[in-house]
Design goal:
The complex is a heterodimer of chains A (809) and B (200). Chain A has 809 residues and is mainly α. Chain A has helices at residues 18-46, 59-91, 98-118, 134-156, 165-184, 201-219, 222-236, 243-257, 272-298, 306-309, 311-333, 336-342, 346-375, 383-416, 438-468, 483-486, 493-497, 500-517, 522-543, 545-556, 559-583, 600-611, 626-632, 667-675, 701-710, 720-739, 752-762, 794-797, and strands spanning 10-14, 187-189, 195-197, 475-479, 593-595, 766-768. Chain A is 61% helix and 3% strand. Classes of the chains: A mainly alpha (809), B mainly alpha (200).
């Protein structure tokens, strides 16, 4: 209800509190599932026997289940509960459609169940947090659209003219997740359960981490910030600290976040300019993120005493503090020098868990303890138990995060250690470093179990509260909104676009892109023009402070222009990074090396590798760093993975990198190793004995190769018969190889293990191409920063000695 | 507090922040100024980006990644080649036999062997594990596919078998010649030197 206007007519509104109740129950149930799977896979890293020699329970298949359950099932349901509860109240209206709410709830649960069935069965797309197969992707997109319609329709029907900051964050979430999800799930099916993503190699890597990073940003951060802005002031009964901080941190957060994706690919063969953008936008992101933390924590001023007594406030305060901690750690890890040590280690694992367990998990707990009594019209069953949950959860998460720091930093240092004169690695075998992180990993497991225990106590408390109370839907009297009178949703597009702040901002962005992309001199010109535009912006802002403030307040009363501006701000970063990378001529951008095509059998082996989730522990990316080259061989070049759909660069090494594994060891070694990895002393890899029992699906190969060809992989024309024959011949050759003494292994050529060996032996094969003709250049972008594969020729050294940006196709 | 009622707004001590009029479902907002230290971390990061970009692409002040790595690796390889040369000058069959009788050396060799070699040759050099045959050749018998002299063994361990997909990989690049010699000494400790070789 607004206090500043006399109501024209009053309405009695009964909120739909059934939907938040359902989502809340789902949050608790799936939260337990996600954390329990997490505890299981963490223990598998300490005790390999807990893989139970069963394919459905192996680490590679369960880890995607854990991440998807934590993100989409636990935090997803929590977010929906919070959004459905608060949006109705902030809009002073019942959710637009009960039917859509129902479809949303049950559809989302069906998707989760489908994921929980398909992932352990090995049906996966092999891209992190985007593993679900294409039929489920379609369902996710459809349900998200249902959610979006329901939400925006509710905004349209609202009785509150102005949109509160929580709603800004919800709007950004819904729009951005839709955009990210669609682009990263562009794919062509090869059958009902399998598809290849349309992007390959470096392009797929860029799109994947644009998505992956922003899944964290717009699925795990922005909706929870919205929830913080609603529930925290409610819980502490204090005004929000600063409205203008809300504005500045909201817009800077949504604009900058989207650019930071490449910080997942630092020191790889991703073009340098993208790495630089990824690193620096991550550093810029520190302040906007802390803006959210400040607004949360400083809202408590004058109410800190509640921290002693109210478990809800305890959870919120620690949740927001963890948000601040992990958004400080994030930029730190994005500095290339720090990242060269931390990347691929447990440090990253600790970082994401301080986000999901510390920030999301504690915010979820606070929200659940606050909502349950209100939604079921009773008191919380036990405040003491909630307090105990708080302490055991806090100890758990601290143990988790700190042991991952120890593990990550230690393993990073061990892997980089050399002898005194720097010629040999101290720990030449990757597996030698594993023994040193066993205890930190065990401490992590204990921390995780504590956290799970705490959350189980929440479940008990929650269900006892439900039993004690009975569902209540609150009813309020509200003033009906007359949009014309209240000047809501009346803004003209012209006013939106040609107003000073927007126009100057857009002009600034265009000039800034000119600085990045234009050839020399033109980019200097753009920079020279950019400076007065910035000054003009600052001066106008100082002078017409009041007008801008009034303009923004009008914008907040107009949901449609607000949403469009949010869409534009999140679209820019992705467009700038992705469009040049995918429109560039692939064949010309390979750094002098071109990947050899997989034979049909090798392709089948690769699909098995992806389906078993090998990428969860093995990267295929030798970074441009000295210790990496000493350990794994020459650093990877763009052209070497150009035909990989999906890319398999990986994000974590629990085992060694495999980018140049091909031809390093004998077929027999791989056979024995897959059957029983314990032949390598200290190995924690699960056994893959079932690969020797299951047949390779050779019949599916023609369709797969057909799709690969559609995606631009230059396979020669082959009949179905030729493809199958080729696969069988290669498999037979490998089995003959295996039969030779001393190993004398009798293997069946039809089995998956043979295909996997064929694939592993192919890794790292490439042709060297003329480096002059195939010079990397992204639309004249300054990324020719790495030497070519071949020694420089006369022709290339004779090129003018100008900035790198002069090199074009 | 009953839902929908405005929250009590008492200005925090030491400041008189402006409380905005609008109330959203009982939630009010102050309009505090942005903290200066916060603004400056933000500005500095933005300025840093521009400065770095210009230094890299326009001024060319930083070495390109790959070039630096290539140079360092070339330097390492040169050093290693020298070390190998120095090592080879001191090594022959008799020296290796002698090393094989030195418990300090064979203990070091064993430590390396148990990390890098057991996967194929077995802990007891029999190329079996729990009765099952491993990938490698047994090293505790008298049959030597690539030559029985210590220097032959040193060579196969260093350089690997001619066809890696059917045999052993080259160990010298990752172990270095000194460790290879220790491993060979350890293997030789399972064998007796031929007549005429003085080991004591």
């Amino acid at each position: 209800m607004t206090t500043d206007r006399a109501p024209t007519s009053t309405l009695s509104i009964t909120y739909d509190d059934k939907t938040p109740r359902l989502f809340l129950i789902a949050t608790v149930v799936w939260g337990i599932v996600a954390m329990a799977v997490g505890a299981l896979i963490a223990s598998q890293l300490n005790y390999w026997r807990l893989n139970f020699n069963m394919e459905w329970l192996s680490f590679g298949r369960l880890r995607p289940l854990h991440t998807n359950a934590a993100i989409f099932a636990f935090v997803g349901n929590m977010m929906f509960a919070g959004i459905y509860y608060s949006t109705q109240r902030l809009c002073r209206v019942r959710t637009a459609s009960d039917l859509l709410s129902k479809i949303h709830f049950w559809g989302w649960q069906a998707i989760i169940v489908a994921a929980a069935v398909t992932l352990p069965l090995g049906y996966t797309r092999g891209k992190e947090y985007a593993e679900l197969i294409w039929p489920i992707n379609l369902a996710v997109a459809a349900i998200w659209v249902v959610f979006a319609i329901n939400f925006f329709w509710t905004l349209k029907k609202r009785n509150e003219p102005s949109l509160y900051v929580a709603l800004w964050f919800y709007i950004a979430t819904i729009i951005t997740v839709a955009m990210l999800y669609i682009v990263n799930h562009l794919q062509i099916p090869t059958g009902l359960l399998h598809s290849y993503p349309v992007f390959g190699g470096v392009q797929d890597a860029l799109v994947q981490w644009w998505y992956g990073h922003n899944a964290v940003a717009f699925f795990l951060t922005t909706p929870i910030l919205g929830i913080m802005y609603y529930f925290l002031p409610k819980a502490v009964d204090r005004p929000v600290y600063s409205y203008r901080l809300s504005i500045v941190h909201f817009w800077s957060l949504v604009f900058i976040y989207i650019w930071a994706g490449p910080h997942h690919l630092l020191n790889t063969d991703l073009p340098k300019w993208l790495q630089m953008v990824g690193m620096w936008f991550s550093l810029m992101l520190w302040a906007p993120s802390w803006g959210g933390m400040l607004n949360g924590l400083l809202t408590l001023r004058g109410a800190w005493d509640k921290l002693r007594t109210d478990p809800v406030v305890k959870f919120f305060v620690v949740g927001v503090t963890f948000y601040g901690m992990s958004t400080f750690e994030g930029p730190l890890l994005s500095i290339r020098a720090v990242n060269s040590l931390s990347h691929y280690t447990d440090w990253t694992i600790g970082h994401v868990h301080s986000g999901t367990l510390g920030w999301n998990g504690f915010m979820a707990a606070g929200m659940i303890y606050w909502l349950a009594p209100r939604l079921w019209g009773t008191e919380l069953w036990s405040k003491k138990l909630a307090d105990f949950h708080f302490w055991i959860g806090l100890v758990g998460i601290l143990l988790y995060v700190s042991s991952m720091w120890v593990s990550g930093i230690m393993q990073g240092l061990l892997l980089n250690a050399t002898n005194a004169d720097g010629t040999l690695l101290e720990y030449g075998e990757y597996v030698e470093t594993i023994q040193y992180i066993q205890y930190p990993m065990l401490a992590r497991l204990i921390g995780g179990v504590f956290y799970l225990l705490g959350f189980s106590l929440l479940a008990v408390n929650f269900f006892q509260t439900i039993r004690k109370g009975k569902p209540v839907d609150s009813t309020v009297e509200v003033a009906a909104l007359n949009p014309v009178e209240a000047d809501a949703d009346q803004m003209k597009w012209r006013e939106v676009i040609f107003s000073d702040p927007i126009f100057l901002f857009m002009l600034g962005i265009v000039l800034l892109l000119g600085v990045f992309f234009l050839p020399p001199f033109a980019n200097t010109l753009a920079l020279i023009l950019f400076i007065p535009v910035t000054i003009k912006g600052v001066v106008t802002f100082q002078r017409s402070n009041k007008t801008w403030a009034a303009w923004y307040e009008r914008l907040c009363a107009n949901w449609m222009p607000f949403s469009v501006l949010a869409l534009i701000s999140v679209a820019i970063g992705g467009a700038v990074q992705i469009i040049p990378t995918i429109t560039v001529n692939r064949a010309a951008n390979i750094e002098g090396r071109l990947q050899e095509l997989y034979t049909p059998l090798e392709l089948a082996g690769r699909d098995i590798y992806v389906s078993e989730g090998c990428y969860n522990c093995h990267s295929q990316m030798i970074r441009t760093l000295v210790p990496e080259v000493m350990r794994y061989g020459d650093y990877s070049r763009i052209g070497e993975s150009i035909y990989d759909h999906p890319f398999q660069w990986g994000s974590k090494r629990t085992g060694p990198d495999l980018a140049r594994e091909g031809g390093k060891r004998s077929d027999a070694w791989h056979y024995n190793h897959l059957m029983d990895p314990r032949m390598v002393t200290g190995s924690i890899m699960p056994s893959y004995a079932w690969l020797a029992e299951k047949d390779t699906d050779i019949k599916a190969l023609p369709a797969k190769i057909g799709v690969q060809r559609m995606l631009g992989v230059p396979y020669p024309a082959m009949t179905n018969h030729e493809i199958e024959q080729n696969a069988i011949e290669q498999a037979t050759k490998i089995t003959q190889n295996l039969r030779q003494p001393p190993a004398t292994i009798y293997a069946d050529p039809n089995k998956q293990i043979v295909a996997v060996i064929a694939y592993l032996q192919k890794l790292g094969s490439y042709k060297v191409l003329d480096p002059v003709k195939h010079e990397p250049a992204l639309l004249g972008l300054p990324d020719q920063t790495r030497p070519k594969a071949e020694p420089e020729t006369e022709a290339s050294t004779a090129a003018p000695e100008a900035e790198p940006s002069t090199t074009t196709n | 507090m009953s839902e929908g009622s405005p929250s009590k707004a008492t200005p925090s001590p030491g400041s008189t922040p402006e409380l905005r009029e609008h109330v959203y479902d009982g939630i009010q907002e102050y309009d505090q100024k942005l903290p200066n230290w916060w603004l400056w971390t933000f500005y500095l990061a933005i300025i840093g980006f521009f400065v770095w970009w210009l230094m890299y692409y326009s001024a060319g002040w930083f070495e390109k990644d790959g070039i630096g790595v290539d140079a360092k690796i070339a330097e390492i390889n040169e050093k290693k080649a020298k070390e190998l040369e120095a090592m080879m000058a001191t090594l022959d069959d008799a020296v290796l036999w002698k090393m094989s009788r030195n418990p300090l050396i064979t203990a070091k060799g064993q430590a390396t062997f148990e990390v890098t070699c057991v996967a194929c040759h077995g802990k007891d050099l029999s190329a079996t594990m729990g009765g099952a045959k491993l990938t490698g050749l047994p090293l505790n018998d008298t049959e030597w596919k690539y030559g029985a002299n210590p220097m032959d063994i040193f060579k196969i361990v260093s350089k690997g078998s001619p066809d890696v997909t059917k045999g052993m990989i080259a160990w010298e690049p990752s172990l270095g010649p000194a460790k290879v010699a220790e491993v060979v000494a350890y293997v030789l400790s399972y064998h007796q030197p031929p007549e005429g070789v003085e080991v004591k």
